[in-house]
Amino acid sequence: MAEVLVYVDHVDGAVRKPTLELLTLARRLGEPVAVALGNGAADTAATLAEHGAVKVLTHDASEYADYLVVPKVDALQAAHEAVSPAAVLVPSSAEGKEIAARLALRIGSGIITDAVDLEAGAEGPVATQSVFAASFTTKSRVVKGTPVITVKPNSAAVEAAPAAGAVEALAVTFSDKATGTKVTGRTPRESTGRPELTEAAIVVSGGRGVNGAENFAIIEALADQLGAAVGASRAAVDAGWYPHTNQVGQTGKSVSPQLYIANGISGAIQHRAGMQTSKTIVAVNKDAEAPIFELVDYGVVGDLFDVVPQLTEEIKTRKG
Amino acid sequence: MSLRIVVTVKYVPDATGDRHFADDLTVDRDDVDGLLSELDEYAVEQALQIAEDADDAEVTVLTVGPEDAKDALRKALSMGADKAVHVEDDDLHGTDAIGTSLVLAKAIEKAGFDLVVSGMASTDGTMGVVPALVAERLGVPQVTLLSEVSVEDGTVKGRRDGDAASEQLEAQLPALVSVTDQSGEARYPSFKGIMAAKKKPVESWDLSDLDIEAEEVGLDGAFTKVETADARPARTAGTIVKDEGEGGKQLAEFLAGQKFI
Ligand SMILES: Cc1cc2nc3c(=O)[nH]c(=O)nc-3n(C[C@H](O)[C@H](O)[C@H](O)COP(=O)(O)OP(=O)(O)OC[C@H]3O[C@@H](n4cnc5c(N)ncnc54)[C@H](O)[C@@H]3O)c2cc1C
Ligand SMILES: Nc1ncnc2c1ncn2[C@@H]1O[C@H](COP(=O)(O)O)[C@@H](O)[C@H]1O
């Protein structure tokens, strides 16, 4: 059976959920061979094996942390040479897309980014994408070389599928371009203890209607009752009320949770681009004409300062 | 010595308009109003600021696109860029990211450069991969997705706010940078700028000027193929209630019914 390379996104050996989703998709195309790089690479093996990786190729070197993108491209290219896979799958993070693109160019292949589904086809994998702010759904194929495809978080269910997960050291020789862009400083983002925005099953967002950084406590309180991540519109981010890392939309994160709750957000096309594929959409907005109501499964026309705290209280009561 | 900056800008269909596909499943660029991609305005802005901080610099804006893409170049010129290059050729219709990066890289080399400045993503394709591809082709460092950028003594420095961390980056020129919409508001063209732009040079190059064969680009040269494109079915109309004191409770009831609580 053909092998499929899966690039592993992990933090010091802890595998992030989108990679496990990729393994589910990879199994539709062939046998997943995972590639884990950098600090803790070998520690990923047990989790990856549990989710279907037949092999885990690992390599650690300081270059992965000290220089941007290119060392990882060199390694993925080495893995591609070693395995001759039927496809290469990479999580659709900003960095993942850059790695995938450069790999595709080097191996003479086409690239598809931000797939939301993948299926095996007679002529190779078929990728589903959601385009033009999710107003169209396309199906595409790579028609030259080994398909390189990046896949968005929440595109498949994580499924356990125990496999060998044999760890093998990957031999990597860095190119002379590998050290071109030096990382001279790194400030890790502080953890909020809340789920990762792109991975969360529920996202509670606030927009200009929240009207102040201090009022975001209302949004956070609801999020915490639901075990949700907190999102924000660009208007709220630009006003300095919430960090840019929480922005949902075209120039922020693209989310596709089971439930999205928009509070005080009008629903501009650039915001929709990042949330329109959510399974269930709920909005609270005092303007009945707000475009967000065109998208909702349930909408409350009202003041979020009344509705949201009441909702939070009611959930607390129901939970007992 | 003069700092030669090339800014890559894309002409895109207006996102607030009715964007759709043409019969051959390429993005329809004829029947839809277009404009300079808003995300590339940030690239033009940062390029102009870098040029203003340098002793001597020249900013060239470059686009690959149809006839109307000249509008995007005019806008960038009226913001303050010095000159423009328009790569236009009938054989370019349907070119994908890999092909676009080839055309851009050849044009950038022909124009001559110390620094390339790109946007974070185009607002139509939203792939965000062309800058990395162009850097790979040019063989220069990629310093991408910066929310802050500066150039000093032949070194470009910047800050990249990633998911896990905020990173300080550094590379020697020649290099390619891309900037995000967090890098700072783009300036509005002044009346003087608009008038001056009319006299600024716009060069037109075709594929033969760049030694590119027709087969390498266009729909036939593409590495990917769109097989189907379907309008997303409209969401079924939801329930909308007006809050009359119980809105939060009603919403809780809905969420409970959907098993979220
Ligand atoms: C290139 C580009 C990229 C962009 N990228 C993004 C992006 O990634 N993400 C994004 O979000 N935007 C993005 N935008 C901006 C987008 O166009 C909108 O400006 C933005 O989404 C508006 O945010 P908002 O809905 O919070 O604010 P507004 O549009 O001002 O809406 C606020 C809403 O709150 C309601 N409201 C006010 N007070 C209350 C109250 N007390 N109770 C209930 N409701 C209340 C109002 O009725 C209104 O509907 C982008 C724009 C451009 C040009
Ligand atoms: N046809 C084009 N002409 C000029 N620049 C482009 C073109 N396509 C992409 N770019 C540049 O590459 C960036 C990212 O585009 P993309 O990878 O398509 O999302 C844009 O912000 C532009 O700076």
Automatic annotation (TrEMBL), chain A:
InterPro entries membership: DHS-like_NAD/FAD-binding_dom (IPR029035), ETF_a/b_N (IPR014730), ETF_a/FixB (IPR001308), ETF_alpha_N (IPR033947), ETF_asu_C (IPR014731), ETF_asu_C_CS (IPR018206), Rossmann-like_a/b/a_fold (IPR014729)
GO molecular function: electron transfer activity; flavin adenine dinucleotide binding
Entry's cofactor comment: Binds 1 FAD per dimer.
Gene Ontology biological process: fatty acid beta-oxidation using acyl-CoA dehydrogenase
Domain Electron transfer flavoprotein alpha/beta-subunit N-terminal residue range list: 4-183
CDD domains: ETF_alpha
PROSITE patterns to which the protein is assigned, alphabetical: ETF_ALPHA
Family: Belongs to the ETF alpha-subunit/FixB family.
Assembly behavior: Heterodimer of an alpha and a beta subunit.
Name listed for the protein in its UniProt record: Electron transfer flavoprotein subunit alpha
Originating organism: Streptomyces malaysiense
TrEMBL record, chain B:
Subunit and partners: Heterodimer of an alpha and a beta subunit.
Organism, scientific name: Streptomyces malaysiense
UniProt keyword Metal-binding present: no
Cellular component per GO, a single term: cytosol
Residue ranges of domain Electron transfer flavoprotein alpha/beta-subunit N-terminal in the record: 24-214
High-level lineage: Bacteria, Bacillati, Actinomycetota, Actinomycetes, Kitasatosporales
SMART domains found in the cross-reference section: ETF
Record flagged with keyword Transport: yes
Cofactor field: AMP; FAD
Stored InterPro entries: ETF_a/b_N, ETF_b, ETF_beta_N, Rossmann-like_a/b/a_fold
Keyword annotations from UniProtKB, A to Z: Electron transport, Transport
Protein name, as recorded: Electron transfer flavoprotein subunit beta
GO MF term list: electron transfer activity
Superkingdom as given in the UniProt entry: Bacteria
One Pfam family it belongs to: ETF
Family (UniProt): Belongs to the ETF beta-subunit/FixA family.
Role description: The electron transfer flavoprotein serves as a specific electron acceptor for other dehydrogenases. It transfers the electrons to the main respiratory chain via ETF-ubiquinone oxidoreductase (ETF dehydrogenase).
Transmembrane segments annotated in the record for this chain: none
